[in-house]
Amino acid sequence: MDIKFTDSFLWGAAISSYQCEGGNFNADWFTWEKKQGLEEALLACDHYNLFNNDFELAKKINLNSLRISIEWSRICPDQYTFLEEEIEHYLRVIDSLIKNNLKPVVTLHHFTNPIWFADKGGWSDHKSIDYFIIYLRKITEALKGKVDTWLIFNEPLVYIYNGYIHGIWPPGEKSIKLAVKALNNIIKAYMIGYKEIKIIYKDTLVIPNISLTKNVRVFSGCDKGNFGLNSFAAFIRSNCFNFWLFDYLNKKKCLDFIGLNFYCKEYTKFQFPFGRECKNQHHKERQNSLDWFISPQGFYDVLIKLKKYKLPVIVMENGTSESDESYYEEYLTKHLKSLAQAINDGVDVVGYFWWSLLDNFEWDQGRKGRFGLIEVDYNTMKRKIRPFANIYGKICIQNRLSVK
Ligand code: BGC
C-alpha cells in the first residue's frame, strides 16, 4: 500500500530553547544543575548564535516546518522587565524560519521558568497564572503576524511528575499536595491563555491553532515479580498520565488539535502510589541508548485511540537516542509506517515532528541523549547531518510512504 500525505502535511523537527540555545542563566534549570551537581547546559548547542545555520540545514534535509520554544527567563529576567532586544531576537529567529520555508510552531513553556518566578513559589503559587499570562500576551502580540500555531505548554504532566512527585527536576519537590496545586494552576493558565490568544488574533485575518503537547506511553505490567500488582500499577499510570488531560481540555473546548509526543513503551513495577518504570533488559522489545523500550506498534495503538477526539493530530515529538546509526533509520521508518497505517485507518494526522533537529541537552541526562537529525560536536559546535536524516528528507519531499 502506498500512502500519500496531504499537500499541507507538516514534516518537521522539534527543539526547545533551554536544550539548544545556551546561555540561559536566568532559568531555574541553571540553578538546579549547580545545586544538584548535574552536568550543566552552559552553551548547550549554541543555537542562540547558530540558528540561521541550523535552519539552513533543516531546509537542506527537506523539512517544511520547525517547532521551537521561547525562553521566558531570557525575555523576562526579572518580574518587571521585558527585554525588547530578546523579543527582537525571536523575531529574527522566526524570520529565518520563514526565509527557509519552515513553518514556525511555537511553544511558550518547555519545562523551564525564570528564577524570580521559581523564587516566588513557582507553579504551586496561585499568582503563577497571572505572571505567565503577562508573558504569554507579550509574546503572542509580538509574533502574531508571523506565527499561527501555538503550544502553550509542553508535557505538563511530565513536568509535574518530575518536578513535584519524583523530585528529580526543579523545584525538586516530593509532595502530592504541591503537585496538585501546580497542575491546577498550569491547567487554568492553559485555559486562560487559550482564550487570550484567540482575542489577541481578533484584529488579524488569521485563526490561530492552539494546543499543548502530551507525552503518551503504552504501559504494561512487568512480568518479573508480582505480575498482577505490576499490571495494576501499569493501569494506574496509564490512567494518571495518558488521556485524561486531553479529555478534559477537549470537553472545555480549548484544544484546536491534539499535540502528541510519543517515544516508547513502559514496563511498570508496583510501587505506592504511582508505580515505577522498570528498565531491566528482560523484556522482548529492543532498548535504545537510554534504555527505553521501542514500540512502533504502541505508536499505532496510541494514534488509533486519538480518533475519539475528532480533532486533527500533530505528532509533535517522536524520536530516539541510539549508539548505533542503523537503529535511527529503523526507528524512523517503523514509526512512520505505524503513522501511515493509522492515517489509513482514519486518524486525521496532519503533521509529524522528529525530536530533535539537533543533538541537545537532555535535562538530567546531560549530553548523553543523542536525538538529533543533526549530530553536534560539543567541543567545536560543528554540525553533521546524520545519514538517517537524508532518508527522512526523501520521505518529506516525496510526501508518500509504502507500507507492506
Ligand atoms: C521532551 C524533550 C526531551 C525529549 C526526550 C520530551 O518528552 O519534551 O524536552 O528532550 O522528551 O527525552
Question: How would you characterize this protein structure?
Answer:
The protein has 14 helices and 15 strands. It is globular, with a radius of gyration of 20 Å. It has one domain (2-399): Glycosidases (TIM Barrel, Alpha-Beta Barrel), CATH 3.20.20. 48% of the residues are buried. By secondary structure, it is α/β, with parallel strands linked by helices. The chain starts with a strand and ends with a strand. Helix 7 (128-143) packs parallel to helix 9 and helix 8 packs antiparallel against helix 9 (176-200). The protein has helices spanning 17-20, 28-36, 47-61, 72-75, 84-99, 115-119, 128-143, 156-165, 176-200, 227-241, 244-251, 296-305, 325-344, 387-398; strands at residues 2-4, 10-14, 65-69, 103-109, 149-154, 209-215, 218-221, 258-261, 265-269, 276-278, 313-318, 349-355, 374-377, 382-385, 400-402. Helix content is 42%, strand content 18%. It has an eight-stranded parallel barrel, surrounded by four helices. The model has no long low-confidence stretch (mean pLDDT 97). The structure holds beta-D-glucopyranose (BGC). Beta-D-glucopyranose is lined by residues 16, 19, 154-155, 158, 215, 261, 317, 355, 362.
